[in-house]
Design goal:
269 residues, alpha+beta, N-terminal domain of MutM-like DNA repair proteins, Helicase, Ruva Protein, domain 3, four-stranded antiparallel β-sheet, 10 strands
Length: 269
């Protein structure tokens, strides 16, 4: 599933070709993705000018001068294609501007598209309970210490809880815990403030590195320009079961709630 770096990369790739452009045509090639497209989507977007781009958690935001914000989620395999040579069967929504054509491609249709009044985006139901952005100023060791206090749940499970921190996914949590040398199965409430400081730094480091590399390529993910993300080449622990760790131990894999966790029991405590 595209995670925060993939969505951030997508938004950054779309911004140069969308911001300031007027949408001249909206074409829907089916009635839904994971859920139906918003009623009146084409009418509300056609003729609107894109005034801003952004991201919240794993959602991309496209603001218009009509006071609407298009909110998209890439689901399991979604991506935007810029100026495709031809429209394919999985290009379910196409936006055209004066200069470009953009196709939202989603073979598995687990993505979603919503149109929300810009003034109400912060109060939009999926956003209300979200925790702070991991790259923002409100995400820090004090925040984690407050939410982890007396918690016996594993630290990895809590970091994947979008109410604790928004946008973190399985790959990047595994990588960050490895960098911080914290066991993914350690009880969150037992982690010291000093180690939480290191964890916050590690989370930011791994996300920023992934964004610079264009995201991680898992199955079908690619950036809007068609290039693949290359952060997978930099994985320190994810997907490396049985390989040696720099500490002399071996990377192990465990499965919790259907998710694979990769870690080194020797150096992650």
């Amino acid at each position: 599933m595209p995670e925060l770096p993939e969505v951030e990369t997508t938004v950054r790739g779309l911004e140069p070709v969308l911001k300031g452009e007027t949408i001249t045509r909206v074409t829907l090639h089916r009635g839904d993705l994971r859920r139906p497209f918003p009623e009146g989507l084409g009418q509300r977007l056609t003729g609107a000018t894109v005034t801003g781009m952004g991201r919240r958690a794993k959602y991309g935001l496209i603001e218009t001068n009509r006071g609407d914000t298009l909110i998209f989620h890439l689901g399991m395999s979604g991506r935007w294609r810029i100026d495709p040579g031809e429209i394919g069967k999985h290009d379910h929504m196409v936006l055209e501007t004066q200069h470009h054509r953009l196709a939202l491609n989603d073979p598995r249709r687990f993505g979603s598209v919503d149109l929300v009044p810009t003034a109400e985006v912060a109060a939009w139901a999926p956003f209300v309970a979200l925790g702070p952005e991991p790259l923002g100023p409100d995400f820090n060791a004090a925040h984690l210490a407050r939410l982890f206090k007396d918690r016996i749940a594993p630290v990895k499970a809590l970091l994947l809880d979008q109410r604790v921190v928004a946008g973190l996914g399985n790959i990047y949590v595994c990588e960050a815990l490895y960098i911080a040398r914290i066991s993914p199965i350690r009880e969150a409430g037992t982690i010291s403030k000093a180690r939480l400081e290191k964890l916050v730094i590690a989370i930011r480091e791994v996300l920023e590195s992934a964004i610079r590399a264009g995201g991680s390529t898992i199955r079908d993910y690619a950036r809007p320009d068609g290039e693949l993300g290359y952060f997978a080449k930099e994985w320190r622990v994810y997907g490396r079961e049985g390989e040696p760790c720099g500490c002399g131990g071996l990377v192990e894999r465990r499965v919790d709630s259907g998710r694979s966790t990769f870690w080194c029991p020797r150096c992650q405590k």
